[in-house]
Amino acid sequence: MSEEDKEIDVGGRPSDFKEEFTEQAYKLCLLGATDKDLADFFLVCEATINNWKKSKEGFLESIRAGKRVADMEVAESLFNGARDRIVPKQQAFKVKEVSYNEKGQRVERETVQVVTLEEFLPGDFRNQQYWTKNRSPENWKDKQEVDHKSTDGTMSPRTTTIKFSKGSVGDGSSGGRTNDK
After folding, report:
1. Is the pTM of this model over 0.70?
2. DSSP strand E in 3-133: where?
3. Would you say residue 21 has pLDDT above 90?
């Protein structure tokens, strides 16, 4: 073995990586695959997937791109599911035509017609709840935090002074009220 060959040899067994894995990883991530799913598909461990991300050109970028597209589609679906919407719906109707022939006899003819209607679909509550909690958590928390501390930072109750004026309740007078029966 020459000196140049010794510098190139990195040791260990050859990589199982094939160039087509980059495109396959992208497509799998479009379907929602995780790194664990990729490892199962390529028959390697998850650590190998992480090594390929670092060492194989384009592999990490393909995974990121596939996951980004999948996440955007799910986010769009979540958003659309949270909104009220009107969708077209086709419905078949039986139409009966009644006429009279030259002899005065009643003639009935039935046909089926397909009509496009608009159907109102309210937004899904779970989607709305998920969306609002994640977009504006400070306004949509399940748990409300109440500050029980006084202005001086302690938990001690504040003292309140109440002053009564003449003729008010507590000074022995009737407080302006009479006990007439």
Report:
1. no
2. 85-100, 106-121
3. yes
